[in-house]
């Protein structure tokens, strides 16, 4: 837990983005190239905190999800502490950052990419009551990567208080969820995070957006073991592959999101394999009532 202990934000000069080490060995069953998307799809992402694979795979509700849907059993964070992992998931680079301080990074990242493509998205931040930069606990700026790119906070980054209403209306194509510092497991137990998931996941799976070809990705930012081994769940209807031992990491997460939404891959995501095996779905046999 010490890896993400809250600290005072510091202003650092933004380094020129440097290539970061790729921890993934591309799988022979998944191509590094973007795959076409036949119809509009929705992607939901939830990022939790500071647990290794072994610490959460047997937790009550998480275990139920792992038994029913896809599990990336050989998935790893790319760095420590929190911030570089969040940046990897949303830009394909850690920018050489190895702390949780404030960095005014170049404009770009997944949010800008979605907006430029005309794809609706929202990032829901639990506890964000005073904007991206002045919200109190349990919100944590270091867990909101979208606020770093270009030194400004996109209007698509909103309070988690808007989540329930949006799920009952027009759901954005990308839904990113960052829980507060208790519900994400950072300051509270795995059981608390597990209980929170048991309340939020059903709200997602009840939406037409998820039921009609959508996918929910749940991951942890970093592990507490030497291998940085974390659990990642791939949740969609018609799951075919229940468990994959292919080597994946947060760049694979970004590649999977971008492929699903028909976007070009950013940074290191262009050089790794997406989680295509876990994304496979059994066709819905509507003509047979299935």
Can you characterise this structure?
The protein has one domain: Alkaline Phosphatase, subunit A (3-Layer(aba) Sandwich). The longest helix has 16 residues, at 190-205. It has helices at residues 53-56, 60-68, 82-91, 109-116, 131-134, 163-167, 190-205, 208-211, 250-260, 276-279; strands at 11-12, 43-48, 70-76, 102-103, 121-125, 157-159, 174-178, 215-220, 229-235, 243-244, 248-249. Strands 2, 3, 5, 6, 7, 8, 9, 10 and 11 form a nine-stranded mixed β-sheet that branches. The protein has a two-stranded parallel sheet with strand order 1-4. Helix 5 (131-134) links the parallel strand 5 (121-125) and strand 6 (157-159). Helix content is 26%, strand content 16%. The protein has 290 residues and is α/β, with parallel strands linked by helices. It contains ten helices and eleven strands. Residues 1-38 and 285-290 have low confidence and may be disordered. Helix 3 (82-91) runs parallel beside helix 9. The chain is globular.
Characterize the biggest β-sheet: 9 strands, mixed
CATH top level is: Alpha Beta
Number of domains: 1
Oligomer: single chain
Total DSSP helices: 10
List the helices and strands and how they pair.
Layout: E1 11-12, E2 43-48, H1 53-56, H2 60-68, E3 70-76, H3 82-91, E4 102-103, H4 109-116, E5 121-125, H5 131-134, E6 157-159, H6 163-167, E7 174-178, H7 190-205, H8 208-211, E8 215-220, E9 229-235, E10 243-244, E11 248-249, H9 250-260, H10 276-279
What's this, in brief?
The protein is 26% helix and 16% strand. By secondary structure, the chain is an alpha/beta fold.
